[in-house]
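Q: Here's a chain of 475 amino acids. Please give me its 3D structure as C-alpha cells.
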Amino acid sequence: MSGRRNTSSPEAPRSFRRGLVLFQRVFGRGVTAAVMLIVATLFGSTAASAYWAASGTGSTTAAVATLAPPTSVTVPATSASDVSVSWTASAGTPAPTGYYVTRITGTASMLACGSSPAAPITGTGCTDSSVPEGTHRYVVTAIYRSWTAESAASGNVTVNNISTINFTVQPAASVTAGSVQSVTVELRTALGLKLMMAGVPVTIGIGNNPGGGTVTGPALTANTNLLGEATFSGLTITKAGTGYTLLATSPGYSGAVSSAFTVTAAAAVRLVATGPASGTASATATVGPFTLERQDTYGNPVTSGSTDVTLASTSTGTKVFAATAGGASVTKVTIPAGAASASFFYGDTKAGSYSVTGTASGLIQAAAPVIVSASAATTIEFVQGPAGGASGQTLSPVTVQVLDEFRNPLLTSANPVTLTKLEQSGGSLRGTTSQNIAGGLATFSGLSITGKAGTYHLVASYGTLTVTSAAFTIT
C-alpha cells in the first residue's frame, strides 16, 4: 500500500473515505486538494456558499388563483326595520379584502349596510338599517383588487315594523333636471295611524338611480314636527333618467320608497362634437363619422325640438362635408326632434391640424380636433438640387420631398429616398445616398463626385417614383 495517508475527515462516512483515497490515487494530489476544499466547505464548521453556471432546458408550472364567493348568506325570516345579514367568508386563495352587500326588492336592487365597492365591509356580518317594509333578499359580493365574486341570494326577509315612514307628498311624476321639488313624509304606526312624535330625524336620499344622479337640497335630514311630519324643500337631481325613486329613512323606523318619477333634460345650451382624431387628405368626405350632440347645462342629451347645425373647419384648404362617407357635399346637418345628435363626415385636401366646428343659433359652438395627413405618394421632386464643384469636393446639401396628389409632403416615410448618378460612365458618386424622410424632407449632405470632369445629373427614387435633377458641372 502506498505511503500516502488518508486525508479524509474522520467524521466522514467510511465509504466516502474509501472513495476519496481511490480518487487520490487516480488523479493525484492537485485534484485531491481541490476535492478537499469542497469537502471542507460541505462538512466544515464555517458557513460558506458557492455557485456555478449551468445550461439546459426545463419546464415549470404555476398555480392560477380564483376568488371564491362568500356562502350561506343568512337573514331572519321576519324583521323590524333593522335587518341583520351574515355570511360565511370566501374560502381559498386569494382571501378577499372585503365585501359589499346588495339588497334586492323585486327586480330593483341597491347597496345596503352602508357598503359599496369603494367602502367594503371587512367582517362577515352587518346590519341594514331603516329597511322599507316589504320582502327583500340579500347578495354579498367578495372583493380582491379588481376581482369580484357574488354569492347566491339569501332567503326572503319580511320587514314589518311597529313604526314606519310614509310619503304624504310624493315627488312630481316628471321634473326637469336641476329644477326644485318638495316632498313630505310622516311617521305611522303598524296599523297605519298617524304617529305624532316630534324630533325624530328623517333622511332623504335616492332609492332607484337610473341616471346616476345625486339628490341635493338645503337639508337632506330634517326632524319631524309635532304632527310627526318632515318636509324636504328645494330638492334637485341634475342627471336625466326614468324610474328614479326617493328613499326616506330613520333609525328604528321602516324606511319608505317614493313613487317613481322621471327627470328630463333641461333646455339645450351647447353642442358637443366628437369624432376621429385623424385621417388622410381627400377631395371627398371620408374622415368620420363625427357626431354633434345637443346637451343641457348638466351634460344631459336634449331630444326636444329640431336644430340646424352649420359645419365649418379652420383649414384653409379645400374642405368638404357630407352626411355619409363619400356622399354628396353639405354645409349643414339637422338634429331632428326626438334625437339628441346628428353625424357627418369630413374631407380636406390640405394636410394639417384643424378644428371641425358645428354652430347653431343660441347654442355654444362645438369643436372637434382632427389631424389631416398626406395621402399616398404620387410625386417626388428636388427641393434643392445638386450644385457643381470640383472633382472630389463636397457638394452643397441636396434635399428631396415626396408629395401626395394634393402636393402635401410626406412628413415621414417607411421607405428611404435614394440617390443615384444618371450617367453610366465618368466619375463616381460618393457619400450617403439613402436617407429617410424627416420633417417632410430627405436631406443628403457630404456628397461628392470624384473622377472625370463633365456634366452630371442625379436621380432621386422613392418606391416606383423617380425624378432627375437639373444638370450640374464637375470640373
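Q: Can you summarize the key feature?
A: Confidence is low (pLDDT under 50) at residues 1-56.
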